[in-house]
Each structure stands twice: as C-alpha cells, then as structure tokens.
Amino acid sequence: MTLTAEEILERLKEKLGDAILNYEIKEYKMGVKRPRTYQEIWMEVNKDAFRKAVEAIFEIDYPHLHFIAGEDVGEVIKMIYSFGVFHSHPWGEVSIVMKLDLPKSNLVLPTITDLMIGAETNEREIREMLGIEFEGLKNKRHLFLPDDWPEGKYPWRRDEYGVEDMIKHTHKSVKEIRKQRGEQNG
Amino acid sequence: MAKTTYYVPIGPIHPALKEPIRVEAEVEGEKIVKVNVKRGFAHRGIEYMGMKRNAIQTLYLSERICGICSISHPYAFVIGSEKALGIEAPPRAQYIRTIIAELERIHSHILWLGVIAHEIGFDPLLFWTWKGREKVLDVLEAITGNRINYSMYMIGGVRRDLKESHIKALRDMITYYWEFTEHMKEVFLSDPVYKARTRGVAQLSKEMALKLNVVGPTARAAGLRMDIRQDIPYDAYADMDIKAVVPQDIVGEAGGDAYDITMVRLYEIEQSLDIIEFCLDNLPEGKILAIPNYVALLNKIKKTEGEAIGAHEAPRGEVIHYFKYDGKRDGPAVWKVIAPSYNNINSWAPLLLGAEVADIPVVVAYIDPCMCCNDRVAVVKDSSGRILDYSYLHKKAVEKTRKLEKELGVRK
C-alpha cells in the first residue's frame, strides 16, 4: 500500500510539528500520450529535529537514499538529503527532499549509518568535502581525498577553508606553502 | 602449526575494473577473512569543474563521467535541468532520447556478459558476445556519429533527428537481437558449468540490498523491484507500463547471486528491444529541440532560479543529479552527481567476506561490469615467496571451472 505525497506530508507534520520550517509539493508532468503527474516533497527542517525527521521517514517506509549534498552559502552550510519512499511501485516512488541549515560555528550532525549502512559512503564524502562531523560515524577514513590531504582544507567550501589558494599555487606543493606560512606538519 | 593469513591487494589498476579501485583482502588458505575497499584514485573533481562552466559545457562534461554509459549522465542532467528551468522537450525528442538510452543498455549488458564469461574462463563466449555487440554499436554510430560519447542530448531535446534509414537499421537490429538473445539465454542459463560457477557466488539477500542502498541490476537480482523507469517514469517510459525485471517473476524466487544477475541482464535486453519497438511504432512527428538557439537557452538559464533532481535508470543502476540554478550565472550553482557504482561498491566487502580466492574475479566483475585494457596489478608474495597477481587469480578461476566441468562430465 503506497501513500501519496500529501498523505506522507500529513504524517510528517504530525510527527514533527513546528520543526518543519516550510514545505512545498512540486508537481511534474511526464509522458506524451498518457501524461501523468508525479509529486516530490521539498521541505526545510530545524537542525535539531533532523534525526527525528529521518526516523519519521524510516517509519513510513524503508527508504532509498538518493544522495546527501551540501552548499556553502556564507554563514551557514545548507545540507540537502534526498530519500525515495515507496520505491518498487509503478509510479509510486515519492522523493522527500529535506534541507537544513547548519551554522558554521557548529558543523555537527548525527549519523544515519545505524539505520542504513549504505549511507556511510555519502557521509564520508560530505565529511571530507565540506568538513561536517557526523556523530557516531565509525569509519572516518578519507573516501576520495588522498590520505595525506592537508587538514582543514575542504574542496567544496567557498570560504577561507576552501581550496582556492591551493589551486592558485598548483605549481607549488602543499608542503612548500605550509612551510612558507610557518605551519607545522609540512 | 599456526594458521597464517596472507594479504592480497587487487588494484588500483586491474583488468576487471574500468576505474582504478583497490581491494585489499586477507586470505586464510582459500578463504577471504578480511576485506578493505579503497576508492578515490580517479577523482577528477568534475562537480567542481561543472560549477565553473555554463550549463551546455557542463552537459558535455557530464558525458565524460563514464565512458561505457555515456548517455546516463547527460540524460539525468537534461531531465534535472528541464525540471529546474521549466522547459519541456518536444514529444519526438523524448522518444528519440528513450531509444538511444535503450540502445546503450543493450550494448552495456552484452559487454558485461562477455566480461563475466572471460572471468570464469570461457573466452570463446567473450569473443562471441562481443561480436554480437558490434551490431548495436554500428546503429549508434549511424544515428549519432560516434560509437561512444555520443553528444546527442541537449537541454530541451536532442541534437540529431532520426531518419528513415535509421529506423530501418533499428528494425533490422531488433530482429537480429531477438535471435541473438535467445542463443545467449541458452548458452548462459542452461550451461551446467556456468550454473555451478555462478550459483551462490556473490549472494546478496533482499534485506542486505536494501540496507546497503544498492541499485540497478544488483538490487533487482536480490529481488527488489526497483527501477527508475517504473517508479518515477519520464519521457517515453511514462507512456509504457514498464515492469522491473526480477528473478522471482522468471523462475519463482530470487537468489541474488551472479547467476540471477546474469538472468536479469539477459531479460532486460529483451525488455529494451520491446521498448525500442514501441518507440518506433509510436514515434511522434515534429521538432526535436525546444529552444534551438543556444544563446537564448543560456540567457534563460541565467534568468531562472530553481532546483531539481534528475534521475535516470542507467544500465548499471540509477544515476541521480541534483541541481541548483541561482539566477545569477549560466551554469549550475550546485551540482551533485551520484553514479550507480557509488552505491554498488558498498556491497563488495560483505560479498567478498567468506568467498574463495577463485571467486574474486566473479565478485569484482559482478558489481562493476567494466573493463580496463591494462594487465598491471600489484604483485604480492605470501610467506613462501609465491607471487599472487592477476594472472594467478584468473588461472585459479579457470582451474575451478575446468574442475567443475570434469565433475559434471561436460569435458573429459
């Protein structure tokens, strides 16, 4: 038995209440001869209710994690989680896209790997690319970046922690730059 | 005598892999007792590059993410962009896009069947399947001009139209492949040795598949009816009633092993032929591009704010692209790409644990059906100085097949 996007949203509202800051149901028309619409839920949640929101989604149906992404927008990092519930049903999958703002002063989120082991890859990538710490994540090895990547450099950040200066000095080694700055661990 | 374990690193460059990846296995006798998978050797920062270019440049950049399924990423890209920008592709273009995507599925699946045959020591089967694959590559070349990296898709349509001669070539191809697939089914599914060599190897349960978040044929072989073309259809798929191919519909139950994944792939080739036939029978007339002027398209992108997810079912599983256009630049402000192998490699470690050394090539090929042309692999010595390299592993795999052949009385 599948639920429609509206019904899923009702359930989420019941569980989370004020923690949903705003929401929207996006509709898309697909098909030429037999056009039908399908819906996606886009919502923004309070950072503190993140874990509760994920658990609420897992209660509705064991989802499929599409992706975890993040965007550096100045003071905060916008995290985007996308889950697909009711997959394996014709025309039935509903994407729930959940966004939350993480202030740069406290870049910590609880892990979801205890609910879904497969999320480990995504979390490890976000951790090394944006510098977000996942509480409870067991495997914290680098996924894509080399093991000797300098600490405190995050390729997707657009602030002073980003890699802009590394790109400007690609002809120099990281070691040299650090030596010039007088930093340790060169 | 104390048990000694030895350590077998495979990769980063390995003939059974398209991309460099490293599998470190600890082996006790013939059994694998510990596995560690390392990736990231080919990270090219494509998402970062894409955020610095305009959308049309990024579209062709996305085609270079994968060489074998070079239609999957542009497909997800154009669907996501069209959703974010509110552009609708003309009906004819939607059908042509579907045809090209299905042609790619056929060639990718046949390629994989050849690879798995090679890994277990049936090289004549590899040559035969790859010879059969030439037909679809010829058709792709006739339509798009390229055998790989077709540069066919555009935001709001396609760049080349289907001519009468193409439609004829496609119909010929369909007749050829109905017969060819029938042969392949006979060879792969009823051969006792192939069965003995793949049954129970790389076995993934339905629960494990869900928890590991695997996608595509890997998930379907485990019994999950997951298929983007069925769950959230797009383009011409929305006009058909696509059903995910799962082993329980064919033989009654899902084993989730290398034999079942072969079956899923073989039946999906037939499904693709049906889809192409449907598209040819119902091909609408009309234009093929919503906004033919690229400058006008880029201007529209520059003025539109929006975000969306584009999803496409590639031969190896779902491809997901997330976009955000911020209305200030002519390219995506945020671009996140998830490829099928990103999720499917999660299943390597649990599958390799407890497997035999001779099964490593099968497990590795089972998940990632791509091949690299190099025969360079790290060389390892165990305590007695024996060298374990790729040719050794391959020899082991072939030996096991020959032994089984004798046991089953196929070869004397």
TrEMBL record, chain A:
InterPro entries in the record: ComplexI_49kDa-like, NADH_quin_OxRdtase_su_C/D-like, NADH_UbQ_OxRdtase_30kDa_su
Residue stretches making up the NADH:ubiquinone oxidoreductase 30kDa subunit domain: 44-160
Gene Ontology molecular function: NADH dehydrogenase (ubiquinone) activity
Name this polypeptide is given: Hydrogenase
Species this chain originates from: Thermococcus litoralis (strain ATCC 51850 / DSM 5473 / JCM 8560 / NS-C)
Automatic annotation (TrEMBL), chain B:
Signal peptide (from-to): none
NADH-quinone oxidoreductase subunit D domain sequence ranges: 120-376
Gene Ontology MF: a single term: NAD binding
Binding-site list for Fe cation: C69, C373
Residues at which Mg(2+) binds: E47, V337
Positions contributing to Ni(2+) binding: C66, C69, C370
Annotated keywords: Iron, Magnesium, Metal-binding, Nickel, Oxidoreductase
Name the record gives this protein: NADH dehydrogenase
Cofactor: Ni(2+); Fe cation
Organism whose genome encodes this protein: Thermococcus litoralis (strain ATCC 51850 / DSM 5473 / JCM 8560 / NS-C)
InterPro entries given in the database record: ComplexI_49kDa-like, NADH_Q_OxRdtase_suD, Ni-dep_hyd_lsu, Ni-dep_hyd_lsu_Ni_BS, NiFe-Hase_large
